[in-house]
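Ligand: glutamine. Inputs:
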Amino acid sequence: MKNHLTLKQLQNGLQNKDYSSVELTNYYIDQINKYNNSVNAFITVDYEKSLAQAKLADEQLKLNKSSDLTGIPIAQKDIFCADGWRTTCGSKMLDNFISPYDSKVVELFNQSGAINLGKTNMDEFAMGSSNETSFYGNVKNPWNLDCVPGGSSGGSAAAVSSGMAPAATATDTGGSIRQPASLCGLTGLKPTYGLVSRYGMIAFASSLDQAGPIAKTSEDCAMMLNVMAGHDHRDSTSIKRDKLNYLDNLNDSIKGKTIGIPKEFFNSDLDEDVKKVLDRVIDEYKLLGVNFKEISLENSHLSIPVYYVIAPAEASSNLSRYDGVRYGYRASDYQDIENMYLKTREEGFGDEVKRRILVGTYVLSAGYYDAYYLKAQKIRRLIATDFKKSFSECDLILAPSSPSTAFKIGEKKEDPVSMYMQDMYTISTNLAGLPAISAPAGFINNMPIGFQLIGNYFSESTILNFVHEYQKQTGWHQEYPEVR
Ligand code: GLN
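Predicted complex:
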């Protein structure tokens, strides 16, 4: 009965005492028990811990000391350290790691009175677009269990779309919030780089990683972002700005505003069916009084090659800490310390992670640094400049979120390059540090697909406003799969 209620509806339900937080949490626990076997969205659940939080939340609710998310269960991507919880990042390397502290994101949800419902499955160290690189097995798309849910936040997306959680946290280094949101029929927001603290969020590529919400609606994303955003002195790239209430501008009129259409994305490479869906999105916005204008992001075709130099370079450095010495996996059988490092990393990391470490150390090595890494950084700047110019001509930019709907499990696993192409429409915003959202735009052969809106730095309120207005007029975000 409560399946697929939004955060907003759950907040009302709790406030009206239709149910308590303990009852609500038990309801989601039942859903997890029903569906997780087939969907594999959660790596770790700890019902005792969740219910203990729910009891406390019920007390706060009684005392009227609650905030918007008090008493509402939220799933946490297993990249966020949570005190006392196993935190694996989808890797054998951290299979035995119980975090001794909370990441900033988890700390903020705890302070808000939200319930940690469990840790969601993900590609190993967030490297992937299909959730097939997880040590814990692939996640299945609730719309069709033979298909991938997208990645790397596939567990978070599948948990929400199957109704096992009302919303979830996620991270986006090159598209990992928006692509799974698109493939699972959800709304997912990647905020401006630096808006949400990365403290205690296991690092993949530090200059690109950013946390954000995956939820059912733009309004729910605003509620989540209200909790997540804010300055944190423990993250040196966290930005000091006044805290906004992202619910405030949701209903502003968007009449007379302009959306840019990048000609490099809307060319003959764009899938015909995806184009039809996006044309319908354009028509819908025109009805809302929005103008459209062609713009150019002329270096966007370089974003995938640039990303696959920069992200592996940063990953190779970040992942050097997994050496079997202080925490995580350690090989059991070794001759000396050097051999211990070697065996630990050989046995603890999966193939995709090893591929990234190899590429990353190569592009950073003497003799290749200038040719690859430095060059990539220069092109990265050009990509950001293209966006800067465009935002003098339009308020937001429309783009596809993913090149197609969800593909079959196994279809691209042996072909890294075709897997990397999944992020061709999302990666440039990470390179530029810009915010972007994916929201449901319709279906192709019964599988959901999203559209993407990209904004200027710190334009999250505008982005959420545009999608909220769209969702008031359309029903795509209210369609849910029936999981068997
Ligand atoms: N698919 C991209 C990769 O494999 C992006 C992943 C992400 O955003 N975490 O690196």
